[in-house]
Amino acid sequence: MRADSTQPARGPIAHGREDRHGSRGVSESGLRVFRLPSNPVSFGVVSDFIAHYPPFDMYEFGLMVKTIRYQLEQQTHCVGAVGNNLVAYVGWILTTQEIAEAWTHNRGPLHPNAASGDAVAVTVLAARAGGYILPLIKEAKKLNLNNSVFWKRSFADGRADHKRAVRKRAP
Predict the structure, then answer these.
(1) DSSP-derived secondary structure letter, 132
(2) What Cα–Cα distance (Å) separates residue 51 from each residue in 40, 81, 83?
(3) Among 93, 101, 107, 111, which residue carries the largest CB count within 10 Å?
């Protein structure tokens, strides 16, 4: 698999059932959504892909290395691929609702807390085309059904960051 951020996407995006390898099935557009193993090749492919997208293309190298490595090791990511080309990535951390709420309101840093995590914070989302985002989000949601989700949207054009949350409803 290789990172491919240079060609525009074409056609509608849909995803199907898992195949025998645990990958999401190929639809008419060819998008598969799955998780990568934690190894040096996966790390290189994801790093190369993410490095082409703002704001990640401007982030400190050490921060991105730690982030991607953690997400691969913890299996807290999904990728979208068409053929052998990576076309989308979403990565998150498991944390507590308290930590995520503080981060959302600029009252504290975001950090993982897998031991008592009841919330997910999306920290990396990059896609070659907007149509690839929803299938990744749906798969990530399936993997985190019992957690509230928090995220921050950064803009390449200088607009202020936006932090959002979708809190888990009480049963």
Answers:
(1) G
(2) 16, 17, 21
(3) 93
pLDDT of residue 143: 92
Length of the chain: 171
In the chain, the domains with their CATH numbers are 2-166 (3.40.630)
Q: Is the full-model pTM beyond 0.90? A: no
Q: What is the 3-state secondary structure (H, E, C) of 59-120?
A: CCHHHHHHHHHHHHHHCCEEEEEECCEEEEEEEEEEECHHHHHHHHCCCCCCCCCCCCCCEE
Q: Is the pLDDT of residue 7 over 90?
A: no
Q: Encode 3-14: b = buried (16+ Cβ within 10 Å), e = exposed.
A: bbbeeebeeebe
Q: What's the DSSP call for residue 56?
A: G
Confidence label for 114 from pLDDT (cuts 50, 70 and 90): confident
